[in-house]
Amino acid sequence: MDLDLRKLRYFTAVAEHGHFGRAAERLHIAQPVLSRQIRALERELGCELLERTTRSVRLTAAGEQLYADAPGVLAAAVAATRRAYGAARGARRLVLGFAPGLTVSPAVRAFAQAHPGVEVELLHLNWFEQAEAMRDGRADVGYLRQPFDRAGLKTLRVGSEPKVVCLPAAHPLAARRRVRHADLDGEHVIDAQTRRISTIEEKLELVAAGLGITMIPRSVARYYSRPDVVHRTISDAEEFEICLAVADGHRRPHLEDFVAIAARALSG
């Protein structure tokens, strides 16, 4: 049975707010209309999704399951729509997403020489959305750095780069050319597990303020270079793998050619 995506969005709103009135206000529709849509969804599925009272609603076991599955269903629909829209815009365009600090110009130049009539659009990706851009259809191909979730993606390794530690310029270890993991014992490490951070700039600002150290790829440290922060290679750390990635089943003209040309241009 195919789900009606509009009704699924309506159901999700009710589940999030626990109230038909508040959900209707958020959706900008009349409450009776929303109630009829949810009833219609329940009839289609053959089960009750909500336990209704005069003041609020609660999810049934079936409702809990549908609410858990809804984000994946809606995301897949958005991705399919974006890919269809991209195809409708023509076969003469590719979107290349790239991670912070990585340089894509050699691949773009090499591809332009082989396919001068194909436009390559660039999409800068934050570290936390690298893989999602391929899965949700925003980018046709990604030039990414591990780690990221590879689910639903095909990847091709094209290189690697060292891990460095970023330190305040006045830090005692800043005088060294290289450090080892043992040298960093006892240091406060700033990362996504210890502090909510969305950008590299935030992370380096905290380092410069003396609130900790952080470990990032060398290209990122160089790209975001600043005088009050130094970076030193961690000699016994594993390197970051760099790869090209496309979504499984993604079919676009010139995509395979781009991946082959980019792999040669970016390998190192």
From TrEMBL:
Coiled-coil residue spans: none
SUPFAM superfamilies linked to this entry: Periplasmic binding protein-like II (SSF53850), Winged helix' DNA-binding domain (SSF46785)
Keywords, ordered alphabetically: DNA-binding, Transcription, Transcription regulation
InterPro entries in alphabetical order: LysR_HTH_N, LysR_subst-bd, WH-like_DNA-bd_sf, WH_DNA-bd_sf
CDD domains from the UniProt entry: PBP2_LTTR_aromatics_like
Residue ranges annotated for the HTH lysR-type domain, each copy included: 3-60
PROSITE patterns: HTH_LYSR (PS50931)
Family statement: Belongs to the LysR transcriptional regulatory family.
Protein name: LysR substrate-binding domain-containing protein
Organism: Amycolatopsis tucumanensis
